[in-house]
Amino acid sequence: MTTTTYQNSMARRVHGVPQSFIREILKAASNPGMISFAGGLPNPGLFPVKELEACTTMVFQKHGLKALQYAETEGFYPLREYISKRYKQRNNLDISPDQILITNGSQQALDLIGKLFINPGDKVLVERPAYLGALQCFAMYEAAFLEAELEEDGINTTELQDNLINHDIKLFYGVPNFQNPTGISYSAEKRKKIAEILAAYETIFVEDDPYGEISFTNRIEKSVYSYLPRQTILLGSFSKIIAPGLRLGWMVANPEIIKKATILKQASDLHSGNLTQYILYEFLKRNDIDKHIGSIASHYHHQRNIMLDALHHYFPSSVQYTQPQGGMFCWLKLPDPLAARDLLNKALQEKIIFVPGDTFYALNPDQHTLRLNFSNVEELVMVSGLKKLGSLI
Amino acid sequence: MTTTTYQNSMARRVHGVPQSFIREILKAASNPGMISFAGGLPNPGLFPVKELEACTTMVFQKHGLKALQYAETEGFYPLREYISKRYKQRNNLDISPDQILITNGSQQALDLIGKLFINPGDKVLVERPAYLGALQCFAMYEAAFLEAELEEDGINTTELQDNLINHDIKLFYGVPNFQNPTGISYSAEKRKKIAEILAAYETIFVEDDPYGEISFTNRIEKSVYSYLPRQTILLGSFSKIIAPGLRLGWMVANPEIIKKATILKQASDLHSGNLTQYILYEFLKRNDIDKHIGSIASHYHHQRNIMLDALHHYFPSSVQYTQPQGGMFCWLKLPDPLAARDLLNKALQEKIIFVPGDTFYALNPDQHTLRLNFSNVEELVMVSGLKKLGSLI
């Protein structure tokens, strides 16, 4: 081997991968004394450590040998059954365990979807702005991105329709509940409308829903899946409602898709962590999950209120921001000509960090936007951080 | 959506995926009363259940919040450090933690390697026969396979050389220690020779080593990696030496490759199970690992002896078989014209099951071969099963 790097050997798909600016930011965020609005982490104070510990002891004592052995690619059957039943109870959705594949968080579901559907150059429509992890994942399969604006009540359906008319779109990826990075949720009308529009095409809607249960209201909006099950792949995750370190999520789809995705998953990593699936299932079975999730939602709700109050008091009125009804993020738009990266440079000197919004666009980044996380910042720190940030603008 | 299946929407790569006959076989193998030589499972009786349980309690009590949170894509640093130190102690290899990426078993490392290097149509050289999981994984990246014969002392190096002269080969994938499916190990001479041959090309050697520590002798052969580190990616796994249900393995490579693979892994599933990495690290730190692995090797050695004795006594001398010095498999060649699938059909009537060897070939399957697993069959059952099987031939 005579070359000095491996660039020549590497596959074409690798060259298109966007650099993750967020990785760099998160490293800076871990510096001592830094006030970080940058992360996307759930609040560890709400992890059910004691309960998981008790369940783990139980798993080792009752199922040790099975939990430590190789297992089915589809995932632990009782866990898939639990997810199926919860959809019925919470959303009145009929989803059989055969329609559920357990994955390593919903990120792996995105990867399997990319593998299953995207040929190089295939068109993928995303929200503007969009979840960065999906952009990175689909970029790896050499997707050609298209965007439609994410408005206060969800994606612009005229843009969606126009894109579908003008392009052959393989996948449309969206996060209808408390989106990352904006915190925006789709209205009931838009969800229905999206299903109506999509029904005339072959485009598959990837409905990513990691935050749906972290709701600050009692409303449960119907999923696009509920209107258009054959054409929707619905993703869920235990990362925000139990703990991300377990690395468990799931994919719901037509059994034909699940069957193929299972073969792809087998070739990718055989199956998800078996011990952790046993532990998680014991936890779900033995605890009041609604109560547990309710306490997370109520805590984040309080954090969000603190954030919105501080934005209201300490930020100039020319700064626009979303009013998230759930999830972990708030989205800001700075007045022209102030760019978020310039603000970040000043903020870093004050030991404050956030993610500039330009990172979250598939195509033409808006330099004036930024994302603030409210789930994992302590109340007093949040107030003093936002006060300083407001004075910098 | 008007089509009745998703075939039109699915990516080209999916159509090339070989059906896993093994999945079907393993389902049959779980029928009650079935004597199974078909699996590739470690013996669960040797899982350190009690010790892992104790470590888990410790992890929850000392590191609960951290172990349950999101973590670095590279993997838990102390675990990578442990692997680094073990390579130094056991193999006298200098591998820094920065050269190690934690993966979901070595299967995910194969997937990341496919993603990183294989463009559709790129040539990948494999052993004849080869590990099925690698064939499935690389097929997904639309690799064009080439084969070189696996002889008693390793791959035929003349064929290797000829292939390299005649083709532009991206990857050469092999399992030099106690290969699956054959149990064959490469001689010291061939390892060195392979490194010498490869050095003149840009081909990367993927040296998969899940069984290396399960050795029935005191010899530790040098890895091809030790001769040619810049051009080799070395894979390891905790599945056979601790427990597969943890889903943890690793990839060793030049830091430049690891850096890219880490970005790909981030897009694939963010990181491997964090809780399980903490548990595994505690286990490795607090236990005599050499003793633990020694007891597995000694048990499998005994099982292998029983198998070879039974093959010697109950099988016609026209049946050829390997003499594995480690690992979990023995490989048989039936005399012409007896096909392994025909034998399997007869064996199934006697409630005996094994994997016909044709499954393990990238190109032209040899119908007369079959794989027998000896790690997970009880002694008396093994003898009676092989006696029956011998009488069927």
Overall description:
- The structure is a homodimer of 393-residue chains.
- Chain A contains 14 helices and 14 strands.
- In chain A, helix 5 runs parallel beside helix 6 (132-140) and helix 7 runs parallel beside helix 8 (188-198).
- In chain A, strands 2-9-8-7-6-3-4-5 form an 8-stranded mixed sheet, with helices on both faces. Chain A has a 4-stranded antiparallel sheet with strand order 10-11-14-13. A two-stranded parallel sheet of chain A has the order 1-12.
- Chain A folds into 2 domains: 12-47 and 291-392, Aspartate Aminotransferase, domain 1, CATH 3.90.1150; 51-286, 3-Layer(aba) Sandwich (Aspartate Aminotransferase, domain 2), CATH 3.40.640.10.
- With 393 residues, the first copy, chain A, is of the alpha/beta class.
- The longest helix of chain A has 26 residues, at 289-314.
- Chain A starts with 11 loop residues before the first helix and ends with a helix.
- Chain A is 44% helix and 15% strand.
- Chain A has helices at residues 12-15, 21-29, 49-68, 77-91, 105-117, 132-140, 157-166, 188-198, 224-227, 255-269, 274-286, 289-314, 340-349, 379-392; strands spanning 35-36, 100-103, 123-128, 144-151, 154-155, 169-174, 204-208, 232-237, 249-252, 320-321, 329-333, 352-353, 355-356, 369-373.
- At the A-B interface, helix 1, helix 3, helix 5, helix 6 and helix 10 of A face helix 1, helix 3, helix 5, helix 6 and helix 10 of B.
